[in-house]
Write a structure and sequence with these properties.
The protein is of the alpha/beta class and 539 residues long. The protein contains 18 helices and 13 strands. The chain binds S-adenosylmethionine.
């Protein structure tokens, strides 16, 4: 990366959202512009970078008479002018200080800031169709705990004290907090029919917060690519940044965008493109959380709680089953009771949220209300149950009360005494739950008599789990009612901060838990295509 721009102190740059575009993405974005607008695009179109910083994005452009560069800070304008003296291919008259979110589009000839040539283009309905707003706008967002910088600080005043914010807050709702959205909105309204070629997150395509924005901002998507956010200087998150080219003349509702996936290390090789990725605009209440609500059971006794954070993949880590939800989970209404009546649906939820790994690419993909096909696929449901029973995110603990999640009978694991609850083994075996097995579920004894038949992959998971339980029950100080989590805790122990260790010295245990994880992975691979087929996720 070319770092000659690091003249501005780091903290000042972060406050203003100035993350420089790496040279590889500058070059690739210009290749995409040439693909869309033709090899002579630099002669046939005008270019305005209205968030130019020190002009990185314009490096490599050849026709300076058609290029304009403006930015907020005078110091950056001075650097650009200095660069012109050092040979940068820009016209001094076309480089100017301009606050794009506040200043008027008024010309130099009237004592204001826009170069007259640019003012004339913007005011000519024909010529402004040839104007490409080519930008990497600032990323700061107001009031968001985890900013793109990953610092967690509020960027108050960065984005809420300007004219564009005030003009649009009632039209596009919360989306207006995002600085890049403010740039897009001003371009859309005041330079109608121009082209927009911009780096940004994909939130304006797929976030629910941008629903109102999308009802207002209508444009035709032409072409674009996505790359990893952390290839940008100072951006640490694992999510995609897109460079997307739009024709604002064609008013099309944004519903789906197919972008090329590019990998930073491979760009100069022939295989820099790694397929495409679709991003969907989903506006209505059709998410997996809306679906699961149909199965909430407030009447029957609970056997545990499912914790449900937001519906996008980046929240995967927060999905788990517990015996005791935290206060904050309860306060934020993120808990659902798991009962005999909804155990299968809750298991489907946990499995579809965990079978596919969270990556930078799928970070913002949202889990959806499925179609009806899953209802008939009993094997899928049983696979999900097996996955849920043995998954590391099942953190049921016997210290909080009877453990209803032991998937075996005493004999199978050589237990020394009777379990307090046989609920899970009975549920799986299709046995009527009798008094003495579990008092708790006596009243529902006729409802669940289905013997659950498991696929070979799910059976492998049970087999690996059974070996682990057996090994634990052979230990001298074992707890008969132990859950999977209790067993892991027993062998792995905790560090001085109270966190469960990831490693353990007991080689037999390591092998057994390793076998269980492998079997779970194989089961996840089997479940995965059905997650798409049944519409929980879109490809
Ligand atoms: C992400 S940086 C991009 C810099 C450079 N164009 C590049 O691609 O490397 C965004 C730039 O927008 C500038 N900026 C922030 N707010 C602005 C505003 N209201 N008007 C114009 N420029 C602004 C920042 O100072 C910063 O230089």
């Amino acid at each position: 990366m070319n770092r000659q721009d690091l003249l501005v102190l780091q903290d000042v740059r972060e406050r203003k959202g100035s993350y420089y575009t790496p040279r590889i993405w500058v070059e690739l974005s210009q290749k995409y512009l040439a693909d869309v607008f033709g090899t002579d695009w630099q002669d046939e179109y005008y270019v305005w970078d209205c968030a130019a910083g020190t002009g990185n994005l314009l490096a490599g452009l050849t026709n300076k008479y058609n290029v304009f560069a403006s930015t907020l800070d005078k110091a950056d304008v001075d650097v650009m002018k200095q660069r012109i003296h050092n040979g940068a291919n820009l016209l001094e008259e076309h480089v100017f200080g301009f606050d794009f979110l506040n200043d008027d589009f008024a010309p130099k000839s009237k004592g204001r800031k826009l170069p007259n040539a640019l003012y004339d283009i913007i005011n000519d309905p024909k010529r402004r169709k040839q104007l490409i707003i080519y930008i990497n706008p600032p990323y700061a967002e107001h009031g968001n705990r985890s900013t793109f910088a990953g610092k967690g600080e509020h960027k108050a005043k960065v984005s809420t004290t300007n004219k564009v914010y005030n003009d649009f807050k009632s039209i596009v709702g919360t989306a207006v907090r995002e600085l890049y959205a403010q740039f897009f909105l001003r371009v859309y309204k005041e330079i109608p029919d121009a082209k927009l070629a911009s780096f940004s997150t994909l939130k304006f395509i797929n976030s629910q917060n941008f629903t109102k924005f999308r009802s207002y901002f209508k444009a035709a998507f032409l072409k674009g690519f996505i790359c990893k956010a952390n290839t940008f200087d100072s951006v640490r998150g694992q999510f995609p940044i897109g460079f997307l080219i739009w024709d604002l003349e064609k008013k099309e509702t944004i519903s789906k965008v197919n972008a090329d996936i590019v990998l930073d290390d491979a760009i100069f090789k022939r295989s820099w493109k790694k397929g495409t990725k679709s991003f969907y605009a989903i506006n209505a209440r059709v998410f997996i959380s809306d679906w699961l609500r149909n199965f909430y059971d407030k009447k029957s006794d609970e056997i545990g709680y499912l914790i449900l954070p937001g519906v996008d993949m980046q929240q995967q880590g927060g999905v788990y089953i517990t015996s005791q939800p935290t206060k904050s989970d309860v306060l934020q209404h993120k808990t659902a009771r798991v009962t005999i009546n909804n155990l299968m649906e809750m298991s489907v939820y946990l499995a579809v949220r965990h079978c596919i790994d969270h990556t930078w690419l799928n970070n913002q993909d949202q889990l959806l209300w499925p179609n009806k096909k899953w209802e008939k696929d009993i094997e899928f449901q049983n696979d999900c149950l097996a996955y849920t029973l043995f998954h590391g995110k099942n953190i049921i603990q016997s210290k909080h009360g009877a453990n209803h999640w032991i998937p075996f009978m005493e004999k199978e694991v050589n237990a020394r005494a009777k379990f307090d609850s046989h609920f899970m083994a009975s549920f799986i075996g299709g046995k009527i739950i009798k008094n003495g097995y579990s008092d708790l579920f006596e009243q529902q004894e006729t409802a669940f008599c289905t013997v659950r038949e498991f696929s070979p992959e799910a059976t492998q998971v049970f087999n690996a789990g059974r070996e682990l339980w057996k090994y634990y029950h052979a230990a001298p100080n074992c707890n008969v009612n132990a859950s999977l989590y209790d067993i892991r805790e027993h062998f792995q122990g905790r560090n001085e901060k109270g966190k469960m260790n990831s490693k353990c010295n007991d080689e037999t245990y390591n092998e057994l838990i390793g076998n269980l994880r492998l079997a779970l992975k194989a089961l996840a691979t089997k479940i995965e295509p059905k997650i798409y087929r049944y519409g929980f996720l879109k490809k």
